[in-house]
Amino acid sequence: MRLLCGLLLLLCLVVWATEARKGGKGRRMRSRERSSTTKRFAADCKESTVNGEKFFDCQERHLKAVLLGWPEDIHHLLLARNRIQVLRDNTFSHFRNLKSLDLQQNEISRIEEGAFNGLSRLTTLLLQHNRLQVASEGMLIPMPQLKYLRLHDNPWRCDCQLESLVRFIQVPSNRNIGNYAHCTEPREFWGRQLKKLDAELLCSPQQENVLIPHPDNQPLPASQKKPDATSLCHTYVHPVPRLDCRNRDLKTVPADIPLDIVRLDLSRNNIKQLRPKEFVNVKDLKLLNLSGNSLESIDTASFTGLLHLGELDLSNNSLRYFQYGVLEDLYFLKRLSLEDNPWICDYNIHYLIYWLKHHPGVSHTGLVCSEPEEFRGWPVENYVKTYNADCPIDKQLGQVPGTDPAGITAQELTAEIDEEELGPIPYRGPKKFEIIRLT
Ligand SMILES: *[C@@H]1O[C@H](CO)[C@@H](O)[C@H](O)[C@H]1NC(C)=O
Ligand SMILES: *[C@@H]1O[C@H](CO)[C@@H](O)[C@H](O)[C@H]1NC(C)=O
After folding, report:
1. How do residues 191-215 score in pLDDT, each as one tens digit?
2. Ligand 2: which of 251, 268, 339 to mutate, most ligand atoms within 8 Å of CB?
3. Complete domains list, the chain, with CATH
């Protein structure tokens, strides 16, 4: 009996010991897993070099903090769309070469005064779309080179604590510091721009006086604010400066597109027309996406200045033809998307075909007649060929200088004469056409 009890006890002990060992091992394994996950986090970030500058891309990694072990010689640190809440003193102090720091779309609600210590070369700091209510000028002191500071879309509380920052933003030479940031609190300052706020009022002891209605103190209804690109759209700096204004219900191209933008997405809005020189300052633009708008007309000078544009997406709009000259500035265009537009196959469309013919490097898609009935579904090129084949007399007249409609230059004429297939000057007024028919 005692032996049996002893055996049972022993058995229990063995089982318990085995379980305990298993459990212990399990716990150890879990903790090893955890540390390797952390490592993978760090490794998941991508380092790359563009034009000799090092980028470290840690966007959208669910990060709550800047991790140890990141390369220290980087120039651009991309931390957008993470979950960082607080920036503590000296968080970035080992990144001595840093030129830009992208912290937009996090959950930052507090920045300690020494958070940016050591960033003596930083020129660009993006803090838009966070939860900041207060900040002081002191946090900016370690960054004497700072030129661009974005603070919009934070719930700024415009009181005495914000005074030094507001005064700094308003220094005339700080042109690109804190633009478009608005007060959320107190109520009487709601919607007012930090840039234009009377800093005297922030610390005035009789702040209550401000409550007395004053035309300038009325919050602006959101609909009356002039849409500007940086507050409406998301900006990205990696791998190239990009502005994403998709689906913003825009009726016009927004003002103040940052000058360094390379890719601009304005698709799925409600833009009906492009005005002259809409993009003239955005000289580096390589991709312009206007797909899914209601574009009916494009001014002949709309694309002025876009010398480097490589890709233009105009698909899914209401375009019927291009005015003569619209495309003349697009020297380096490679791709032109034109599908889902009601192209009308009459003489107005000839300019487009003519231009494409003389820019064989441009690949285009979607150029199909939707009207008139007899040409519906035809590739526009085929329609133009038919037009030319039908009118051989045009071919001869077209080559006589002086009989051409205004606007055709000598160079275009020469090029035209070299063409065999396409024949006459494609751009031709209807009157002239009629006169020829009559003779
Ligand atoms: C333009 O935007 C549309 C809709 O957002 C998208 O489907 C299309 O791929 C974009 N075009 C280019 C060239 O990126
Ligand atoms: C065309 O644009 C409209 C409006 O933006 C959008 O709803 C629709 O999905 C687009 N169609 C295609 C084929 O992309």
Report:
1. 899 999 888 888 775 444 444 444 4
2. 268
3. 42-199 (3.80.10.10), 392-438 (no CATH)
